[in-house]
Amino acid sequence: MNTKYHDIYRATIEKWGAEAQYDQAVEECAELIAVLKHFRRNKVGSDAVIDELADVTLMIGQLSYMLGEEKVEQAIKSKLDKLRGLLETPEGR
To answer: Which pTM does this prediction carry?
Structure first.
């Protein structure tokens, strides 16, 4: 569990509320989707992708804080185990 940003996550939720942060997360993910599409078509550089990745990373941190970081960590471990299994199979499915 990364507690480095807990104070700012807590302050953000106190200031704007959980519902606003859920909406903000959706908006940031949409912006990342859009910039990735532009990046693939060479309309933006990697700096634009990095900027949006930073926004999404912060929102993931807030959502993890809100929903339970231990639960998210366990889900990540489970997904990584599944991915490892897929990588070990010849067809990768």
So the answer is: 0.87
